[in-house]
Amino acid sequence: MNHHDALTAAGLTDAEITGGTLSVRSPIDGAEVAKIHETPADKMPEVIERAQKAFKQWRTVPAPQRGELVRLLGEELRNAKEELGAIVTLEAGKITSEGLGEVQEMIDICDFAVGLSRQLYGLTIASERPGHRMSETWHPMGPCGVITAFNFPVAPWSWNAALALVCGDPVIWKPSEKTPLTALVTQRIFDRALARFGADAPADLLQVVIGGADIGEALVNSRDVPVLSATGSTRMGAIVGPKVQARFGRPIMELGGNNAMIVAPSADLDMAVRAIVFSAVGTAGQRCTSLRRLIVHHSIREELTEKLKQAYASLTIGDPRTEGTLVGPLIDETARKEMASALKSAEAEGGTVHGGGDAKGVEGGVYVSPALVEMPRQTETVQTETFAPILYVMGYDTLEEAIELQNDVPQGLSSCIFTLNVREAETFLSAVGSDCGIANVNIGPSGAEIGGAFGGEKETGGGRESGSDAWKGYMRRQTSTVNYSSELPLAQGVKFDI
Ligand code: UN1
Predict the structure, then answer these.
(1) Are 221 and 240 in contact (CB under 8 A)?
(2) Catalytic positions (predicted)?
């Protein structure tokens, strides 16, 4: 399918994709596919005001009914899965299966949120005073700003939006300037769900704002946007996080990763190879969970490296829409330059680079062959996240040493160990093991399910999205003490007789 047909199939009209100031290019062939209209920065106060107005109404709708809207959204996403998946492929360059997988992730979180809408549980707490009852209730928070990145243009939005909506919070979404079309298509899908839901839903529950840093700034700086979720680079998070905190807003940060796999002597190597290749070269190494560091026991290092070289040689690189392709394009020319520069630095630090050059793909796109880099130690380049398919390979002797290497980077998103030894596996998951938000055994670091909380520590930002109790980030907690006695005892036995 050509680009224009894909856009039309997804319901975008010519008026929407022409005549604007933001040029959207497909990484598949570098072609400009749309010129879309940006949100003027001076319109942002109105956008936020509309979200506040929607909030006043939405917070009065019972949570299970709010869940019904998200159920309809999940249904509409199921109906539009192919069309939206194709736009993810067109705009982010993901292979078809991963484009569809991203939409499936949206559907999954909608299902999760529907159930959650009947389970926004608070606590009953034992009071120390007679005739008193204590409880905890969760209330809607207010408009939630969601800033997303190009590499997962829609799933992280849905992790935030599906939860925010059942929690009673309207959403203002600023997609990456590189992938705004997926947001426009999603808005359309959402509008269909909203129309089916009927009159109880306010019109501005989801607003998409298009543009650059000034649009994001307006959300970051507004006290009327109490929750601000941002996915992107650590550099971006270091600017956004403190600004939100300075106005006592609540930031939810999902930033860089530098994810490692430890491969122990007992590992099932064939399984490890499959996990390594998927997580290191899948999405052309442009997931925040991509595998970037391999920490292999010296006794199997050579054997594993050989197996990987063979597996890498068999990869099909090229047009992500073609069946059989495993590695699509990088997002743009800057990404190619960053990859080349990282490989050069790694070489200067004593690394031996295999692969990493240009690959044959569609004319105009940035296609590279994934690189394996044997490193003598964990250098500065290895400690830096480069959004490209580069896998650094290092050796280790003891598990302690491996865990130390795994943790000795500024980021703390995802990690894993391949081992059949229960002592090693449990140590890796224990308090003295991985310091990451995600720690897996015999599974690669990427491709997490939505049921768990997603996010990580250190420069990854500390935020949690998606499953488990991440919903609490979108609500405010209220502790209530009710006195049903005829006395007025004070806590801690304080006497204050008047
Ligand atoms: C991201 O790269 O920003 O765990 C998100 C994964 C996906 C999400 C990645 N479920 O790889």
Answers:
(1) no
(2) 254
Determine if ligand 1 sits within 6 Å of the CB of residue 151.
yes
**83 confidence band (pLDDT: 50, 70, 90):** very high
**CATH code (residue 311):** 3.40.309.10
Q: What is the pLDDT of residues 393-433, one digit of tens each?
A: 999 999 999 999 999 999 999 999 999 999 999 999 999 99
pTM of the model: 0.97
* ipTM confidence score: 0.98
Give the structural domain span for 208. Answer: 3-255+461-479
287 and 223 fall within a common domain:
no
Q: Whose CA is nearest to atom 7 of ligand 1?
A: 447
Together in a domain, 250 and 282: no
Q: Does 99 lie in the same domain as 7?
A: yes
What's the rounded Cα separation, in Å, for the pair 16 and 24? Answer: 12
**Do 161 and 210 lie in a common domain?**
yes
Inform me whether the pLDDT recorded for 221 exceeds 90: yes
- What percentage of the chain carries pLDDT values higher than 70? 100
447 pocket-lining for ligand 1 (C-beta < 6 Å):
yes
| Residues 225 and 266 grouped into a single domain | no
Q: What's the first-to-final CA gap in the chain, in angstroms?
A: 82
CA distance 430 to 495: 46
| Domain-embedded: residue 375 | yes
Q: Are residues 192 and 319 in the same domain?
A: no
Of all atoms in ligand 1, which is nearest to the CA of residue 286? 2
Ligand 1 binding pocket includes 179 (Cβ within 6 Å): no
If you write DSSP's letter for every residue of 19-54 in order, what string do you get?
S-SEEEE-TTT--EEEEEPPPPGGGHHHHHHHHHHH
Whether 98 and 228 map to the same domain: the answer is yes
User: What single-letter amino acid sits at 322?
Assistant: T
Which residue's alpha carbon is at the smallest distance from atom 6 of ligand 1?
447
Are 314 and 169 within one domain? no
